[in-house]
């Protein structure tokens, strides 16, 4: 069961009926918490219960000798023989045992013997009919996200932190709660890969799961602990692969102890970072570093056979080794290549302080950065003019290098001064001129205007896929910024392939591909489809060398889009700000301008009581207007001079929103329900709720009870979809259409009807006519969604006078 409280109730019911219970599961799945809840429930029911921890039990303890009490045993897997015998005697004499058993930490033969001893037969078999058996499995990512949001408190979790905790928790509830505490204490590092501060002291915070894990791993030797901590930083491997990096005997010991765990249902094993932190105090710093160097040296062998290491393993080797540490010249040279590769990637995304530290590290190894990476590093450190000179000195004739160089030069020049107006060329067959035209337009922020046909021709005819994609997205962004259908990107009614699908993946073109991917995500966001197209975007990111960095900002874009389209503008703004701070370093001025303006629109809409200084400019742009619509600020939207006027080629979203507002103004509920259905077809859940809600209000006003109730059913289904797609929303806080408040006379009439009075009797009490009573009751039933007087009794708010 997903809800441990429901499971606790089920166990208590079984115990009261005479059954014992066994709950199995890996570490951190919430067994101890479940046992405490069971004890509380038994106490409340007046059932005698005695709690004991098997790993802390001693022969002179008498808890297990209480024949009348239900024995609640935690950590049964650690029970000594004497305790197992006493528990067995307890069950043989009709006593009941509720035990928690951690799987994965002992050989199967031991586990089977221990369970048979306590329960008389293997409780996981079919012959143990009197044993309530449950196996707790780790939560999937979606359920874990909902769990974390529910426990996050007043400070909301951003998508990157959520991803870090979800990755580190491995679906374990108890681990997740400790990790949430660590994240609040800024002890979780999310970038570039999720990790926990290795210097975390045992008493830094109340971390019950971590403390319990430390206690359960107290017998792991310092040598094995050091190997486990060192292995926690690399990609998962199978037993043979791990045995090539550390002593196979250590691998076997760590597997039996449950320190090395399977990942993703495969044969590959990893040491979870949470387990590594629990073991950190059991070995010295020198022991761990020695293991890291040995493991890194082994990983370098993969580079020597021509198979590049992953980014995670690359960083592991770079941090663990220095070229001078290696006596083998080939290994030393392989490490130098890794260092240069890691620093090159860092210049694409890293902050100034990180870039400076990386450059110093590179210099200490007497290595040089490739020219483009050096230009990015100079720009990050504030020396843009020197960065331009570095780019100008590149003379490589390779087509990819030439495009990358021209692109970088265009971006850097725009940062040093205002970019020149694009030069005139009508011949798109001149590839150099066409490329320059596209790059120059990316460096400016004004609309394309009359240049649109020419740029579209470049998108259609240029042989270089990078230039063609840049041109296509230039046109698409220009269109959606004006609220028009983008010609190259699919919308609600036009399923075209994404322009970014044809982009190149060469590492030298990382700045170009980064811009293409950001632009594609921005187009999808502006047409309201970033959330729906999340998977295609992530698939595109997976093809790029800097996959993990791209996935980070993509998560922020999708989270911002999801929040905004569900009316949560404050959350959308926070995610957008995090996105803006994590985009690739060299993106053109036009793209940065769009990112800034979307942020300004989100900021303005997130606080509708504050009028922005640049309201006139904001209100003339599509993003601000559509955000007003999603925020439910339809009155201010209608008051704008431009509003959402549909023009030729307008986005489907604009046409539907306009139709919704018009139907509301015209009080046409049939049209509203039709529009709501179209929105629902396209997974636009909040607009669907708005339209169904407006239709419901009109039906209530007309006393059309049946049609109002039909809208209630539709709204309930839409609210369920919203909760599924926005895990931070609880069942109580999900966007909903709250029924209107009953008037005092409607409420009084409804209460009298619910008590069984006839309409004539109610009329006498209220001193009004029977027809007036019928009107009051019809309104009350419509507003509350009640079919009968019995429903009224159930749905009416409590009478404070009762």
TrEMBL record:
GO terms for molecular function: DNA binding. It holds the Pfam family GerE. GO terms for biological process: regulation of DNA-templated transcription. Residues 735-800 form the HTH luxR-type domain. SUPFAM superfamilies: C-terminal effector domain of the bipartite response regulators, P-loop containing nucleoside triphosphate hydrolases. Gene3D superfamilies: Winged helix-like DNA-binding domain superfamily/Winged helix DNA-binding domain (1.10.10.10). Transmembrane segments: none annotated. PROSITE patterns: HTH_LUXR_2. Keywords: DNA-binding, Transcription, Transcription regulation. CDD domains: LuxR_C_like. This is DNA-binding CsgD family transcriptional regulator. It comes from Aeromicrobium tamlense. The lineage of its organism: Bacteria, Bacillati, Actinomycetota, Actinomycetes, Propionibacteriales.
């Amino acid at each position: 069961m997903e809800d441990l409280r429901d499971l606790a109730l089920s166990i208590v019911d079984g115990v009261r009926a005479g059954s014992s219970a066994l709950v199995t599961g890996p570490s951190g799945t919430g067994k101890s918490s479940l046992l405490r809840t069971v004890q509380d429930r038994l106490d409340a029911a007046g059932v005698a219960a005695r709690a004991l921890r098997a790993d802390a039990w001693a022969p002179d303890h008498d808890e297990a000798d209480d024949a009348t009490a239900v024995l609640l045993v935690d950590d049964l897997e650690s029970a000594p023989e004497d305790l197992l015998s006493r528990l067995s005697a307890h069950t043989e004499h009709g006593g009941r045992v509720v035990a928690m058993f951690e799987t994965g930490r002992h050989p199967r033969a031991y586990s089977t013997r221990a369970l048979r001893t306590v329960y008389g037969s293997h409780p996981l078999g079919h012959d143990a009919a009197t044993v309530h058996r449950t196996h707790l499995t780790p939560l999937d990512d979606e359920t874990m996200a909902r769990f974390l949001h529910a426990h996050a408190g007043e400070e909301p979790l951003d998508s990157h932190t959520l991803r870090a905790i979800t990755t580190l928790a491995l679906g374990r509830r108890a681990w997740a709660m400790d990790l949430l505490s660590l994240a609040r204490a800024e002890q979780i590092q999310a970038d570039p890969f999720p990790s926990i501060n290795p210097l975390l002291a045992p008493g830094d915070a109340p971390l019950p799961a971590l403390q319990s894990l430390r206690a359960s791993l107290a017998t792991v030797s310092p040598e094995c602990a050091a190997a486990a901590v060192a292995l926690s930083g690399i990609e998962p491997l199978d037993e043979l692969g791990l045995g090539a990096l550390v002593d196979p005997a250590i691998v076997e010991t760590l597997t039996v102890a449950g320190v090395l765990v399977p990942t993703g249902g495969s044969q590959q094993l990893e040491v979870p970072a949470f387990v590594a932190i629990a073991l950190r105090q059991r070995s010295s710093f020198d022991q761990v570093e020695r293991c890291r160097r040995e493991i890194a040296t082994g990983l370098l062998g993969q580079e020597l056979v021509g198979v590049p290491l992953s980014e995670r393993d690359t960083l592991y080797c770079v941090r663990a080794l220095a070229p001078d540490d290696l006596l083998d010249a080939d290994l030393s040279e392989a490490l130098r290549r890794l260092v240069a590769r890691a620093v090159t990637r860092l210049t694409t995304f890293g902050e100034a302080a990180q870039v400076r530290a990386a450059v110093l590290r590179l210099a200490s190894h007497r290595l040089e950065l490739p020219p483009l990476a050096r230009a990015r590093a100079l720009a990050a450190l504030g020396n843009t003019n020197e960065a331009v000179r570095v780019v100008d000195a590149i003379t490589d004739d390779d087509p990819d290098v030439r495009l990358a160089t021209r692109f970088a030069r265009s971006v850097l020049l725009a940062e040093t001064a205002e970019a020149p107006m694009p030069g005139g060329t009508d011949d798109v067959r001149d590839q150099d001129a066409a490329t320059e035209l596209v790059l120059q337009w990316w460096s400016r922020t004004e609309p394309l205007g009359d240049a649109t046909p020419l740029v579209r021709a470049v998108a259609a005819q240029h042989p270089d896929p990078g230039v063609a994609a840049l041109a296509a997205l230039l046109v698409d962004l220009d269109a959606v910024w004006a609220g028009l259908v983008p010609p190259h990107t699919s919308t609600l009614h036009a399923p075209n392939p994404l322009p970014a699908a044809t982009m190149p993946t060469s590492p030298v073109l990382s700045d170009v591909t980064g811009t293409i991917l950001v632009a594609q995500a921005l187009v999808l966001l502006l047409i309201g489809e970033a959330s729906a197209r999340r998977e295609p975007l992530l698939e595109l990111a997976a093809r790029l060398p800097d996959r993990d960095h791209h996935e980070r900002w993509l998560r922020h874009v999708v989270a911002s889009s999801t929040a905004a389209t569900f009316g949560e503008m404050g959350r959308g703004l926070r995610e957008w700000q995090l996105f803006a701070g994590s985009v690739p370093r060299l993106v053109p001025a036009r793209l940065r301008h769009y990112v800034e303006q979307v942020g300004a629109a989100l900021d303005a809409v997130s606080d509708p009581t504050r009028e922005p200084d640049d309201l006139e400019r904001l209100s003339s742009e599509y993003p601000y207007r559509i955000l007003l619509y999603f925020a439910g600020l339809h009155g201010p939207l209608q008051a704008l001079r431009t509003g959402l006027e549909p023009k030729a080629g307008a986005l489907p979203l604009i046409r539907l929103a306009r139709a919704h507002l018009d139907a509301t103004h015209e009080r046409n509920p049939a049209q509203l329900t039709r529009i709501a259905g179209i929105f629902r077809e396209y997974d636009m859940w909040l607009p669907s709720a708005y339209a169904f809600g407006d239709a419901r209000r009109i039906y209530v006003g007309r006393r059309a009870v049946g049609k109002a109730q039909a809208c209630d059913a539709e709204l309930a289904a839409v609210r369920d979809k919203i909760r599924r797609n926005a895990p931070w929303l609880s069942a109580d806080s999900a966007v909903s259409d709250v029924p209107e408040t009953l008037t005092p006379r409607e409420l009084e009439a409804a209460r009298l009807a619910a008590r069984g009075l006839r309409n004539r009797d109610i009329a006498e009490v209220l001193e009004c006519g029977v027809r007036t009573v019928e009107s009051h009751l019809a309104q009350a039933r419509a507003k509350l969604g009640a079919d009968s007087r019995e429903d009224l009794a159930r749905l009416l708010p409590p009478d404070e006078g009762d």
